[in-house]
Amino acid sequence: MNDTICAIATSQGVGAISIIRVSGTEAFEIVNKFFKEKDLTEVESHTIHYGHIVDHEEVIDEVLVSVMKSPRTFTTEDVVEINTHGGIAPTNRVLELLLENGCRLAEPGEFTKRAFLNGRIDLLEAEAVMDMIDAKTETQRKMAANQIDGKTSNLINELRDDMVQIISNINVNIDYPEYDDVEIITDDVLIPKIKKLKEKIQKVLKESENGKIIKNGIKTAIIGRPNVGKSSLLNALLQEDKAIVTNIAGTTRDIVEGQVMINGILLNMIDTAGIRNTEDTIEAIGVEKSIKMMEEADLILFMLNNNEPLTEDVKELLEQIKNKKYLILINKIDLDNKLERENLNIEEDRIIELSIIEDKGIDELKEKIIELFNINEIETKDPTYLSNARSISILKRCLKSVEDIEKSLKDNMPIDMIELDIKNIWEELGTINGSTYEEELLDEMFSRFCLGK
């Protein structure tokens, strides 16, 4: 981290401006070599200066240069941002000058990595930077903003503070048993404290399910036999002709995807091939994909044709989805009823009647999805959740360890052994916000960032 790095911070291509970011101990010295109007080491911090980038006698571009002096910068290092005219040629030429004069091209996410390593942000705040960049909905933006502001980190810090209090009390009991004014930590005292800690972790994990929905959306698979109206439903929800619709069974042979937003939450819609026995090799591959999508989906919209009798293969599929979140959509209610609805063995509140051709039932379907995933509650609450799979996985491991401690206490395990287990959980919680970390984790995490961020 002793070298000076640079990278293009804006998307490459034709635009009004491009920004090249420079960070490090030699940032001002290097840019001074070809910015001739002012000595950047002499100007005040957090100021912008008009001038030209000049290579020997050749004027490369007319620019604005922002100067930010350490430590009040994103990386806490000296930072210069050069605003050039947009376009590939001027941007790349300025970048070449920086590299020729002592800068190193930044690795993906290296600016944010330096901000973390220099103590400017923690790991949750660093991850939220990319979440903010990737945000497609207002709810995603709010959640990322809360994480950047440290609100999510506070959830983890509070858990660790609770554990420090428990560890401290145990240590005092072990090291200074003669103190009369210190709470004596017995199993009867410790069990309620551990139970309360477990409940707090469970609450964070439960609410983090909302965070995953906000961040990743709801993976929604439209499943059913051929020609029940799956592609028509996708088109109706997207309000565009995304999927080909014909009255020929087996038209959809591969998955077709699209996104629709419901109250700030993305539904990642997947129209699958109709599930049936077929000797057509290509269609069979599509059916196999459909079954896989059914297993992976957060929500299954299982479509039935009101104008067709219930078949045994459909009954088998209905049994398979009962451990998932699902809705049964009976389409084509404008046609004669040939479906033995009484044989469905499905709760009535899971069934929605549709006539896509007459535009009936779509609004009811949306309302039922809102109800099923508590989307109204998610939308109205301040979204302060863990949303990263890494963080949630760590917290689940911590919960399991706390449950093991609870069992050990009931089995009268010695208090000093319990203390070691609590310390291990405290350290593992620290890997969520980066209080403790491994270099390999950082390299892997920041490699997914944008170049220049």
Give me some keywords for this one:
single chain; 453 residues; alpha/beta; Gyrase A, domain 2; Rossmann fold; 2 domains; six-stranded mixed β-sheet; 15 helices
For the biggest β-sheet, the strand order reads: 3-4-5-2-1-6
- Uncertain regions spanning at least 5 consecutive residues: 178-182, 243-254
Radius of gyration: 29 Å
- What is the count of distinct domains? 2
Name of the CATH class of the largest domain:
Alpha Beta
Query: CATH topology of the largest domain, what is it called?
Result: Rossmann fold
Instruction: Please give the share of residues in helix.
Output: 40-55%
The CATH superfamily label of the largest domain reads: P-loop containing nucleotide triphosphate hydrolases
Largest sheet: 6 strands, mixed
| Beta-strand residue percentage | 15-25%
Q: In brief, what are we looking at here?
A:
By secondary structure, the protein is an alpha/beta fold. It has 15 helices and twelve strands. The strands form two sheets. It has a six-stranded mixed β-sheet. Strands 8-9-7-10-11-12 form a six-stranded mixed β-sheet, with helices on both faces.
Question: Any overview of this molecule?
Answer:
The protein has 453 residues and is an alpha/beta fold. The protein has two domains: 5-122, Gyrase A, domain 2; 137-434, P-loop containing nucleotide triphosphate hydrolases (Rossmann fold), CATH 3.40.50. 45% of the residues lie in helices and 17% in strands. It contains 15 helices and twelve strands. The chain has helices at 27-32, 88-100, 110-117, 123-134, 138-148, 151-175, 187-216, 230-238, 281-296, 312-320, 362-372, 375-380, 389-410, 415-433, 439-446, and strands at 5-8, 17-23, 47-55, 58-68, 79-85, 104-105, 218-224, 256-262, 265-271, 299-305, 326-331, 351-353. It is flat and about 85 Å long. 35% of the residues are buried. The model is unreliable at 178-182 and 243-254 (pLDDT under 50).
